UniProtKB/TrEMBL annotation:
Locations listed in the record: Chromosome
Top-level division of the source organism's lineage: Eukaryota
Keywords carried by this UniProt record: Chromosome, Coiled coil
GO CC entries: chromosome
PANTHER family cross-referenced by the UniProt entry: STRUCTURAL MAINTENANCE OF CHROMOSOMES FLEXIBLE HINGE DOMAIN-CONTAINING PROTEIN 1 (PTHR22640:SF2)
The protein's name: Structural maintenance of chromosomes flexible hinge domain containing 1
UniProt gene name: SMCHD1
Pfam assignment, any one: SMC_hinge
Originating organism: Meleagris gallopavo (Wild turkey)
Length: 1226
């Protein structure tokens, strides 16, 4: 075999000037070329058959085709590095952030090479400080950990010329341009720079903040929010500003306001970036100065040289018709410093008793004079107000007086009376409080003054006062109105002194309404007063609007709110701010109970010590849904629970959908609330799998269990197989060892039923022998060494096989023989299937080569035919399964149509879905109309079911359809209707403690179980015979009860409470019935539908034995069940919805089947069938040429998993896929 000029010229290019090194002997050139290529880069060359002129020997040769590949050698024949270039860099470059610089080294001819000596690169850039960690030599030369620091001026960065020098290279320098951007945030710069800042109370302070990198450049990045928290007082604001765009901004916010500040106060401002924990915060001290703005208004009255302060809302007594002079006012700031009144400030001062104000007098602190009314019926209310941009102040006082004057018959004042006459004056009126009443004599006016007139808390409105002096009297009518708001009350919310029980996430039973009231509790109609809400930190209310305002009646309605909080007691309080005075209502304490109907987690039980062999079945999984109170939620549809499984571990919140299992049908396990996943198939491939159970809370929200990690292990050993099937060997008994090699480097492994490697712990041997398909054939080939069997050690689950025939081995020419590999493993009780490999034996070398080619073609055809057969088998099974689905859907549709006919619902043959949709809509409307009709309900509030062991109050456990029976039974059980029934004494005791013993409870575990038989016949029926014919339609009272939930427990409760009590029409019928019953057996209590009662001892009559009218029961009456027609509508709607789903499914499976059948007749499918037939025909011809009988080569290939080239068809159902897999492995 000769070498093409092409390969030699490639080698010659590396030896310019040294051509004498190339061998001139043609036979020596091939090893030389391979040696050279072995130490250069990978080459793949094909030398095509052609005639060419050898440039070295000047002879013409006919070359053969030679395909070869050579890998890179190690440290051989690399040229010396003379120059370099910079490779592809990863952007961006940031200050202080390490990056790498790849270098591509070349020799003098431009070929890639490596560094051979220790070179330290030099990095330079004007204006930058550059450092690096190391230079990695070898095939990939990289300068690692390069950091650049310097000024870049802006957030967009700055261009720099980076110079790299590798000393010792011929071309040792490369310069390239980089754009360096600011680095990550490293520090905060806050202006002003002063450590202590001074601001006035009630003002906002602006900070100039800059985010800098470690070189002092302003930097920016997403979500760069700077916060400022003020410390040192309560209710201080928090400033925040976004520096994501420019890296700098003004940090400011609401004003800083501290109440009741009289002197300087120190605060601390902590400025930080919450998203950058490595950036140290900046702290500034702030000296908060009292505001210099007006903060307090003071009014005084001058009496000579003495100034008397008039406080806000004071009452002043003055002489009627007189004028109040010398009223002055003063204004002070927060530091109690008096403020000089300027002209601008005087413009903002208003009074309500005169429209004209002398501004000059106001600037001097003088108020206008007040004229006192001349009529005793008038009241003067005086208000002084000051309003500017910072504050709204007011001060008010009231001038009140009552003078009693004695006149003659003509209305003239009698001036002969003296102060002694005050003892004869009396004042009276409804609700008048005389405790502070004072009567004084006015010598100057000969009148008597009455002070301290006030009323006791009573209804507001017109009141009449009577003034009597001896035999004379006069009347004064006054209008009593509410005073100023002084407190806040919650309306219609009794017993606030004890916690209000509420279930987490549920709404309160009534809206939350607050009313402004005066100090006597009268509703104060003050509008637009802000109502705020304060609550515990972990209490959340919905809706979350925490601020409301009062209406014209002084009332604010917060609506019906829902409570969300952890279990325990939480407080909520409403507050109002009126004239800077906080009005607080009583604190509401909520006892939040866990929601027994809210699922929060899934509990999964299974045998955690079980193993998971491939292809086996999982242990039973028992799943329950737990509520907030850690109890199991019952009455859940099994369709909402599913089991998901996928290969691998962990997928975050996204669950893959490799395999999904539905809940198994519940067997005779009397455990309500548990869902079982039984007989679920373990995956057939070994590995780590994750299992997770999901509960569909609604259409969008899923509740997931913790992931269960299982390790699928191999199943029991079944057979001996190689990793991949070798080609059918074709050997001869010639001298060349390659022609006698049967198998080389064949690794046999122990496999389970699903072709998983197993038996890693087994030790033994594999015995190889040769057999003939013809048992009478005695001429059997032998292995090298003229032996018939060879043993190979088997360890760690595999054995390595190398087999060579003996030279001049016996054997028939062109005959097929079988290599048999039998495992001998003492540790296994059941023998494994041996592995068989057919081979062809020839005596002639040329014939062997020809047959080897045919054998390879046979193997390829066998594998291709196996794939095609698998494909067509799967397709046919898919069609059969689809037809089964169509048949099942048709059967389901016919069954539901017949069920609808039983309900007198006929369906049309056309437009069925439209008809069903309209019918469902109509039925739902009829059902809603039926539910909206008035019916009897129990208005007694039920006890919150915060525990699964609480059944509820007796009044809510049962329903009675007949009104008269409901009335008399409710009255009969009146003392028990409010009792809470629990399953356990512990739950009853908990309710007893929570209500401080005020709630009566009944635990069922304390009831003696020998209660009346619920199915016992009436007393007049004895041994199946009627002892007498009763009148009045007697029936057991318990038989009139229906139970919405917990039927078994409710039968226990009412069996104990009612016993054998009987309902009958009227009193006469009851007396007749009792008279006859006592002749044969004791008679139980009788209740009549007219409301009478005959006790079991025979006593009747009196108010104690007569039921009052229904409205007198105050809502403590058993409710009426939903009408029977409602249940009928529910059943019809359910059937119609099932029928609609069945029709849609039938249509879908028919479409899928037709689509798949059409796909079977496509040109592509017909072409595949034709290709399969042609390949089967070719295989038959090759086997005839080989002299082989049709073998099971295709079946052998089926033992190996194959990848089917399947089109986009629906995934086969589980049982069909299972059958397909079994076929693939058998």
């Amino acid at each position: 075999m000769l070498i093409s000029n092409l390969a030699l010229h490639c080698i010659a290019s590396f030896f310019r000037g040294q051509e004498s090194m190339i061998p001139q002997n043609v036979e020596s050139r091939l090893p030389f070329v391979l040696l050279m290529l072995n130490h250069r880069q990978y080459h793949s060359a094909i030398f095509h058959r052609k005639d060419y002129q050898d440039s070295f020997s000047n002879n013409a040769y006919s070359s053969s085709s030679l395909r070869f590949g050579v890998a890179v050698g190690q440290n051989f024949f690399f040229g010396k590095a003379e120059k370099f270039s910079v490779g592809l860099l990863e952007l961006p470059f940031r200050v202080g952030v390490p990056f790498n610089i790849p270098l591509e080294l070349q020799d003098e001819f431009g070929h890639a090479t490596q560094l051979t000596n220790d070179i330290k690169p030099i990095l330079e850039a004007s204006g930058l400080t550059l450092q690096y960690e190391e230079l990695t030599a070898g095939a990939n030369c990289i300068i690692k950990g390069v950091t650049a620091k310097g000024c870049v001026n802006s957030c967009q960065g700055k261009n720099f010329n980076l110079k790299i020098t590798l000393p010792g290279l011929k071309e040792d320098t490369q310069i390239f341009k980089i754009r360096l951007q600011p680095g990550p945030p490293y520090q905060l710069k806050v202006k002003p720079d002063s450590e202590i800042l001074k601001i006035e109370n009630g003002t906002a302070f602006p900070f100039q903040v800059e985010v800098l990198d470690e070189s002092g450049n302003i930097t920016a990045q997403p979500k760069l929010i700077v916060h400022c928290k003020f410390l040192g007082a309560s209710n201080l604001p928090v400033y925040s500003v976004d520096c994501s765009n420019a890296g700098t901004n003004i940090l400011t916010g609401p004003v800083i306001h501290v109440l009741n500040i009289k002197k300087d106060q120190m605060l601390k401002a902590r400025i930080e970036i919450p998203s950058c924990k490595d950036v140290p915060p900046v702290e500034k001290m702030i000296k908060l100065l009292p505001s210099s703005h007006v903060a307090r208004l003071q009014v005084l009255s001058m009496n000579g040289q003495k100034a008397i302060q008039i406080k806000h809302q004071d009452e002043i007594n003055w002489i009627a018709g007189d004028i109040m002079h010398n009223l002055i006012f003063q204004m002070y700031d927060e530091g109690e410093r008096e403020i000089h009144i300027t002209s601008a400030m005087a413009e903002k001062i208003k009074v309500n008793w005169t429209p004209k104000i002398n501004r000059e007098q106001l600037m001097q602190g003088l108020l206008p004079d007040v004229k006192v009314p001349t009529s005793v019926k008038d009241v003067r209310y005086c208000l002084i107000s000051y309003l500017d941009d910072h504050v709204s102040l007011e001060s008010a006082f009231t001038i009140r007086f009552v003078y009693v004057m004695i006149t003659d018959q003509y209305g003239n004042q009698v001036q002969t009376v003296t102060s002694a006459c005050t003892g004869y004056l009396g004042v009276a009126g409804p609700g008048l409080d005389k405790s502070n009443l004072q009567i004084t004599w006015q010598e100057s006016t000969f009148t008597m003054r009455v002070k301290g007139i006030r009323f006791k808390p009573c209804a507001l409105g017109s009141k009449e006062l009577c003034f009597a002096w001896r035999e004379f009297s006069d009347f004064l009518r006054v209008n009593l109105t509410a005073g100023s708001p002084a407190k806040l009350q919650i309306m219609d919310w009794p017993e606030l002194e004890k916690p209000v029980a509420v279930i987490n996430g549920r709404e309160l039973l009534k809206p939350l309404v607050v009313q402004l009231c005066d100090e006597w509790g009268n509703p104060s109609p003050e509008p637009n007063v802000k109502i705020s809400l304060t609550k515990s930190s972990n209490l959340k209310i919905v809706p979350s609007n925490h601020q409301h305002r009062t209406d014209d009646n002084g009332r604010a309605n917060l609506g019906v709110i829902s409570i969300h909080a952890p279990r325990g007691e939480h407080t909520l309080q409403l507050r109002a701010l009126y004239n800077k005075i906080a009005l607080e209502c009583p604190v509401i304490t909520f006892n939040v109970l866990p929601d027994p109907d809210k699922p929060i987690r899934l509990n999964v039980k299974y045998d955690k010590n079980a193993s998971f062999p491939a292809g086996g079945t999982f242990p039973d999984f028992m799943v329950s849904v737990l509520s907030e109170d850690d109890n199991i939620i019952r009455n859940i549809s099994p369709a909402r629970i599913s089991m998901k499984m996928w290969k691998g571990q962990g997928s975050g919140n996204r669950i893959p959908t490799d395999v999904t299992f539905s809940c198994s049908k519940i067997k005779d396990d009397k455990e309500d609330g548990f869902f079982y996943f039984r007989d679920k198939v373990i995956p057939e491939r070994v590995g780590t799998y994750s299992i997770q159970f999901t509960f569909a809370m609604d259409k969008t929200n899923m509740l997931n269990s913790d992931q269960i990690i299982v390790e699928v292990v191999p199943n029991d050993p079944v057979r001996l197989l190689p990793d991949s099937l070798p080609a059918t060997p074709a050997v001869s008994n010639v001298r060349a060892i390659t022609s006698r090699t049967l198998v080389k480097d064949l690794h046999l492994h122990i496999m389970d039923e699903y072709n998983n490697h197993t038996g890693a712990d087994l030790i033994g041997r594999v015995i190889a022998k040769i057999k003939s398909p013809n048992e009478d054939d005695t001429e059997i080939p032998q292995f090298q060494g003229k032996i018939s069997t060879i043993e190979f050690p088997f360890d760690r689950g595999s054995a390595e096989i190398n087999l060579v025939l003996a030279e001049n081995s016996p054997g028939r020419d062109s005959t097929e023989y079988i290599l048999v590999f039998e495992p001998d493993l003492p540790a296994l009780k059941k023998p494994l299937e041996p592995y068989r490999l057919s081979f062809m034996f020839y005596n002639d070398f040329k014939k062997q080569q020809q047959m080897a080619t045919l054998t390879r073609e046979r193997d390829q055809l066998s594998q291709s035919i196996g794939v095609y057969r698998n494909w067509f088998d799967t397709t046919n099974q898919l069609v059969n399964e689809m037809r089964c689905q169509v048949k099942e859907a048709e059967t389901r549709e016919i069954h539901l149509r017949n069920e609808l006919r039983k309900h007198q619902i006929e369906l049309p043959q056309t437009n069925t879905l439209q008809f069903v949709d309209s019918l469902i809509k109509q039925k739902m409307l009829d059902q809603d109309g039926l539910m909206k009709q008035p019916r009897r309900t129990c208005t007694l509030p039920n006890y919150p079911k915060g525990n699964q062991d609480i059944l509820g109050k007796i009044a809510h456990l049962a329903q009675i359809e007949d009104n008269e029976a409901a009335k008399v039974i409710s009255w009969h059980l009146a003392s028990d209707m409010d009792c809470v029934v629990t399953l356990t004494t512990e739950a009853a005791r908990s309710i007893f403690d929570e209500t401080q013993g005020r709630q009566q409870v009944l635990p069922l575990d304390s009831i003696y179980k020998t209660l009346p038989d619920w199915n016992r016949p009436l007393p007049h029926l004895r041994n199946g015979k009627i002892c007498f014919r009763p009148v009045g339609n007697p029936v057991f009272a318990r038989d009139l009860l229906t139970f919405p939930d917990n039927v078994e427990h409710c039968q226990t409760v009412f069996g104990m409470l009612l016993g054998d009590t009987i309902i009958i029409d009227n009193l006469d019928a009851a007396n007749h019935y009792r008279k006859e019953v006592v002749k044969i057996t004791p008679c139980p209590t009788l209740l009549t539908r007219e409301g009478d009662r005959i006790r079991s001892n025979g006593k009747f009559g009196g108010l104690q034995n007569k039921a009052p009218p229904m409205d007198k029961l105050r809502g403590m009456v058993f409710g009426a069940p939903v009408p029977k027609l409602y249940s009928a509508f529910t059943g019809q709607i359910d059937l119609l919805q099932q029928y609609r789903a069945a029709v849609v499914k039938l249509d879908d499976v028919n479409k899928d089947l037709n689509l798949h059948l059409r796909s079977l007749n496509t040109p592509e499918m017909l072409k595949k069938k034709q290709e399969l037939a042609e390949q089967e025909k070719s295989l038959m011809l090759i086997e005839q040429k080989l002299g082989m009988t049709p073998s099971d080569k295709v079946s052998e290939l089926l033992l190996q998993p194959v990848i089917l080239d399947m089109p986009d068809t629906p995934i086969p159902p589980k049982r069909m896929r299972k059958e397909t897999v079994k076929k693939l492995y058998r």
